[in-house]
Every structure is written in structure tokens, then in C-alpha cells.
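Let's do one together. I've listed all components of the complex below, 320 residues spread over four lines.
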Amino acid sequence: MGATPSQVASEILDVIPSVMREVRELMRSHRTADLSVTQFRVLAFVDRHSGTSLSAVAEHIGLTLPSMSKLMDGLVERKLIVREFDRADRRRVTLKLTARGRTILEAARKATRDHLTHVLSTLDKAHLETVYQALATLRPLFLSPREAHLVLESKDNGNS
Amino acid sequence: MGATPSQVASEILDVIPSVMREVRELMRSHRTADLSVTQFRVLAFVDRHSGTSLSAVAEHIGLTLPSMSKLMDGLVERKLIVREFDRADRRRVTLKLTARGRTILEAARKATRDHLTHVLSTLDKAHLETVYQALATLRPLFLSPREAHLVLESKDNGNS
DNA sequence: TATTGTTATACTCTATAACTATA
DNA sequence: TATAGTTATAGAGTATAACAATA
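Okay, and this is what the predicted structure of the assembly comes out as:
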């Protein structure tokens, strides 16, 4: 009881990188999917926001536009995403998952989920709930810098 | 209430990468420290285990030996770590922080901690405690693969 | 022969700067 | 002129394979 923000910060620095490394290896070692974590996140975002633009994806994920453009090259080449010009504004690009993209995304999601589920299965309900609540708590605090103001500027003090 | 392992897994995939990206940018943007997260973790480990070997660090951090060797080149060149041959076994290397290494580590730690503390300061005590407990719960589940068996091999029950 | 570490090499990820096309 | 995106280029980070030195 009585964890200070400073202690929590130290824990974050210690634990989060380990979790990331494991997730990264899971994604990359999958037979057919073989995605980087960033690629996975991009597919998931485009799935939820079909027809979105490159800028929007870059902003959400937290990559620069050139980096995202190059990453997208790879996903388009692998036929996981279709990239077309917007008819209304031909500078814009519209992004959608292909059927194959949806399949691969689901496969990666399932593989990772299955593995993590296995790892997490050693936890009892109370611990599981704690982790779930903690992640829900952290989520709004660590949106990409550009999005952050949308949430943060209105509640710079007390939290819900 | 009643989060399933599967739901928690999805949250991990969604939230953890965002936290990582923020931490990474913090470390890299610091004026004097300018460390990658991995470099930071290496310094912290060597600080806690002064005189440790290269293999030990690589294993703890989850890098291959050649990768760690190269990373260490950088830290030695920046005079943050001293690397000497072990007198007892000349194949081994002993690693220690320099005074400068300790200073830089502390500076990076403080900068990151200060920023995270600011971010976390919007949380009330209960939420903070939840996050703290969750990280403590996750820690043993995501040790580096090589260390993992020490914890996991005794409880490898049913999962496909 | 086995172990500890290094060197050589290559690939992925990401960034900044300069550019093109459209508005 | 401003915006959306791409191309060119470079640097960090990591891996595998081959090697050297020591035990």
C-alpha cells in the first residue's frame, strides 16, 4: 500500500520492456503472420478505421509520415492493405485491409492472445482483474503525443 | 469485473507499445543522458551487479551475446562502463559502472521518473496502487526467456 | 572440446531532408 | 502557399555465422 508515482515509474521502466520483448518475439516468430508489433498495430488500426489516411495512421501509431509511408509499402506489397487515391482529394490516400490482411491480422492476434493467455493463466481472478484495470488506467495516459491533448487538456487535474 | 485472460492479452497489445514509445522518446531526448531503453537497462543491471559478465547481462536483458558485445562497445567508448578481463578466468569480462556511468544513469532515471511522475500524478491513490500491483504481478511472468524456466517450468499445465 | 567473447555482415526500423503532386 | 505523401539517405539496433582466445 502507498505506492508513490516515483516507485510506479521505476516499475514501468523495469517491467514494460520485458513484456514488449516477449510480445515482439511472438509476433515475429509466427509462421505465416510474421509481423512487427508496429505492423500489427497498423493493421489493427486500419481494420477499425477502414478508409483512413496515412497521416491519421501515423499520428495514432506515433510514427513520422515517411516512416509510415515506407512501412505501408511493405504491407501493400504483401497484399495486406490496399492503398488508393481519394477521389475527393487526390493528395490523400485511403487505406483498407484486404481479405488476406484481415486473415493475417486475426492469425497474429490469435497466436499472441493464445500465448499471453497461457502466460496469464497462472494468475487468479483477482490478479487478472488488477492487471486489466491497470491497463485501462494507463491507456489514456500514453496515447501518442499528438492525440494526447485531446484527452488531457480538459482534465489536467483530478482523474475520474 | 471478470476480465478474461484473452481480454487482458488484447489490452496488453494495445497499451504496452504506447507506453514503450513514450519511455523510449523520453530516454532519447534527454540532453546529456541520451540512452536507448536497452542501454538504460544495461546500466541499471551492471549497477546492481557490479563485476558481472557479458553473458549474464545479455541473458538478463534478452539480447544475443554479439548484440550485447556491440552495445557494450558503445557504453565503454562513452566511458560509462569499464570492461576488464577477469584475472581468474581470462575468457570472462568484468563490467562495472564508471563514476560518469553512475551519473548518467541517475540523470536518465531522474528525467524519466520526473516525466512519468507528472503523467501519473493525475491518478488518485487507488489507481496508482492498482498499477503498481499489476506491474508487480506481471514482472515474474515476463522475465527474459532464458530466466523464465526458473519460474515457469514447475507449472506448465494445460494449454494448446 | 566447451565456453566466453568479438568481428564480419546484413537486415529491419525509424528519422530528417528534399522532393512531387494536389489543393 | 499549404498539405499529403514519397524518395533519398543515414543511423541505430539486432541477428546469424564465423572466428579467436582461454579453460
